[in-house]
Amino acid sequence: xxxxxxxxxxxxxxxxxxxxxxxxxxxxxxxxxxxxxxxxxxxxxxxxxxxxxxxxxxxxxxxxxxxxxxxxxxxxxxxxxxxxxxxxxxxxxxxxxxxxxxxxxxxxxxxxxxxxxxxxxxxxxxxxxxxxxxxxxxxxxxxxxxxxxxxxxxxxxxxxxxxxxxxxxxxxxxxxxxxxxxxxxxxxxxxxxxxxxxxxxxxxxxxxxxxxxxxxxxxxxx
Length: 222
Description:
alpha/beta, globular
């Protein structure tokens, strides 16, 4: 199975490409500049263990066309709507997995939510109801993702208006060796995306004795 990552040349996209390829999947990293994507892939493949899946670097449109079903959307918030508008017509029969968090341009420890309520909801409003948008992977440290020697230290909250698409994305994410939870419809993204700046604040705080923290759903011990 091929998974596309639009905007996959950033830290989060690169880390997810490594993780999905390490899990045996084929990953197509897309970029506006195919040559930049290809150069980044040259470095990524050196990190993969023997027997891992394949990573290729191409332009965004070609990456989307190679994906059977899942297109992970990993662009800066400032480019979110513009990029979606440019690829909207080739997303038919795909599930868009939106991992973007609308961080404030003035302070990454805060969010600047769009009028729709969240990046996930903004994407769904822009793409229309025929293309399911699922919010996921918002709260995972890019540093953790890019270090294959480290286990992913958090659970994944998955939300979106299509239950069927949500369930498919949960199964996709579980291939990374993590637990993924059904967090409800697209409106839940308002809470999930807003957790990211809180984690950023904790991870850079000198008063906290750790970094690269994530969210865990704690099961009762009784």
